[in-house]
Amino acid sequence: MTIIFALIYTYIINSQLPFKILVSILLVISLAWLIMKNTKKSPNDEFNDTKINKLVLLDYDGESLKEWYIQGIPSMLIGKSSPGHEVDIDLSDVEYASLISKEHAVLNYSSGSWFIEDLESENGVGIKRLNESTPQKIQSDKPSEVHFGDMIYLANTRILVK
């Protein structure tokens, strides 16, 4: 409200041209600073397309079978749903469902990053990093950070992190 009164005084009531010019320059500088401040990216946001938004279940040929949008969700249980027991990412109908545990893994969002944790599954969890050629098995009960482009392996089931 104060700004509105200041602008009314400057441009309507006040008749001094140098004062109007000075206020105009200050307004332009202030607006430019606000725009730059609000559009500045943090070091973790180099590319907007590297933010993890979804998980994609892939078939043997790399074709998408299912997608789960995970943005804004703090935690997702991965496994097989059954009557009286639901999971967030249900793999009960995948080709290798017999190798997936009822509660196979959990995906948690913490401090701006996603972490996957093997819940002592029989066949384990692996992660193949974007620039690596082979997946690395993660230890049970030790969260491992996942990044955009990583491939999560739950037994023989592949889930792409996008």
TrEMBL record:
Superkingdom: Bacteria
Family annotation (CDD domains): FHA (cd00060)
Where does this protein come from, organism-wise? Lysinibacillus telephonicus
Keyword Transmembrane helix listed:
yes
- What is the protein's name according to its record? FHA domain-containing protein
Q: Which InterPro entries match?
A: FHA_dom, SMAD_FHA_dom_sf
Q: Keyword set for this entry?
A: Membrane, Transmembrane, Transmembrane helix
Q: Which residues form the signal peptide?
A: none
Pfam families assigned to the protein according to its UniProt record, in alphabetical order: FHA
Q: Where are the transmembrane segments?
A: 17-36
Give start and end of each FHA domain: 76-132
Q: Is RNA-binding included in the keywords of this UniProt record?
A: no
